Amino acid sequence: MGATSSGPGPAPAPVRPPQGRAVGSWVRALLGRAGPVPVPGSGLALAPRGPAEEPPLPGWPLPQLVSLFLPEFPVRPSARQQQLKILGFVAKGSFGTILKVLDCGREKVCAVKVVPKVEVLRRDTLKQCKEEVSIQRQVRHPFVHGLGDSWQGQRHLFIMCTYCSTGDLHALWRAAGRFTEATVRLFAAELVLVLVYLHDLGIVHRDVKMENILLDERGHLKLTDFGLSRHLRWGERAHTICGTLQYMAPEVLSGGPYSHAADWWSLGVLLFALASGEFPVAPAGDHVAMLERVKQSSYESPPALSPALARLLAELLCHNPLHRLRYLHHFQGHPFFRGVTFDADLLQKDPVAVAVAPRPPEQPPPDPATFADFACDLAAPPGRPWPG
C-alpha cells in the first residue's frame, strides 16, 4: 500500500469545475438587477438579500433573471412558500444554505437548499444547476435521496428534498473507525445497485463519497448531491476535472477523457476506507499532485481484510478503466458478494449492524419563522446561522 492517511481525517473538500470565465455584459446586467455581491469589472457593490426579503415575482412577460431558470425551477405562488416554516439550520455549502423546514401543507419535515441566483450566474454554472434538478427529477430509486420539489423566487433558487435525521455515512464512519465486512458488504451492494441504475440511465455521478451518502432511520443508504452529475451517453466521454480529490479516478485527475467507470473507482476508494479505517492514498493539495500520488500507489489492501474483499478493491481500483468492475453481473458473481441478492427491496430488509444515532438538534431560529417573514442570512457561517 502506498502513502496512507493516518486515520479518519477531515472531510476532503470538493473540487468544482474551473471558474473565472469572462462575465458578459448581459450577465452583468442580470447581476445588477439581482443586487448581490460585487462583480469584477461591473462596478456593482450591492448587498445580498435573503429569501424573506424577496419581492413578489412580476407578471408576464417574465424578466430574463426568471426565465433563465425555467423550466427546471418553475415560479410558485407565494402562498406555497408561506407554508414552509423554518425549523433550523442544517449545513452551508459553497453554493448556498440548507435549512430544515416544516411543510405545513403536507405536515412533513423537509430539507431545502437555498441558492442565490447571482452565484449561479457568476460561477457560470447555470447549465449544471439545471441539469442537477433535471437528473433528480428523472431518478427514482430506493437508495437515492430523491427530489421533492424545486422552484424559484426573484433572487434565489429552492431545492426541496426529504429530511434525513440520521446524518451521513462520513459521520458514522468517523464515529465507528471502521466497519465489519458484513456491514461493508451490505453498503457496497446498495451502492452497486444505485450506480448501475444511474449508469443505465446515462448518468455519471462524479462525486461518490461518504459525505454524499445519507442514512435513513434504519441505517440504509441514500445517495445524494447530484450537483456535479451529468448525462453521459454510452460511448461519450467527459473531460471536466471535478469531484473530491481523494475519490477521483486517475483519468479524471488527468483531465480525461473519462466515462461512467470513474464512479466505480470512487466506490473502491470509499469501500477501502470503510473497511480499513483509512484512505488508500493521503490527500494532496491539487489534482496534479494527487495524480502523482495515485500513479505511485500500489493500492494494496491491509492484511486484515479477507481475500474476497481485497480482490474486490483491486478490481475497482484498477488504473485502466476498461478493466474495472462496472456491470451488475460482475458483482453478482463476485466471491465477496456470495449469498447476496441484488434486490433493493430485499436489501432494505437486512439489518444494519451499526448504531445509527439521530443528528444533534439544529439551532432553531429565535422565533417561529417562514420563508415569507424570516431573513435568512446566507452569508452567515455555520456557527452563526441565524441573525441576532
TrEMBL record:
<protein>
    <submittedName>
        <fullName>Ribosomal protein S6 kinase-related protein</fullName>
    </submittedName>
</protein>
<dbReference type="InterPro" id="IPR011009">
    <property type="entry name" value="Kinase-like_dom_sf"/>
</dbReference>
<dbReference type="Pfam" id="PF00069">
    <property type="entry name" value="Pkinase"/>
</dbReference>
<dbReference type="GO" id="GO:0004674">
    <property type="term" value="F:protein serine/threonine kinase activity"/>
</dbReference>
<keyword id="KW-0723">Serine/threonine-protein kinase</keyword>
<keyword id="KW-0547">Nucleotide-binding</keyword>
<dbReference type="InterPro" id="IPR008271">
    <property type="entry name" value="Ser/Thr_kinase_AS"/>
</dbReference>
<keyword id="KW-0808">Transferase</keyword>
<dbReference type="InterPro" id="IPR045270">
    <property type="entry name" value="STKc_AGC"/>
</dbReference>
<dbReference type="InterPro" id="IPR000719">
    <property type="entry name" value="Prot_kinase_dom"/>
</dbReference>
<feature type="region of interest" description="Disordered">
    <location>
        <begin position="1"/>
        <end position="20"/>
    </location>
</feature>
<keyword id="KW-0067">ATP-binding</keyword>
<keyword id="KW-0418">Kinase</keyword>
<dbReference type="GO" id="GO:0005524">
    <property type="term" value="F:ATP binding"/>
</dbReference>
<feature type="domain" description="Protein kinase">
    <location>
        <begin position="84"/>
        <end position="337"/>
    </location>
</feature>
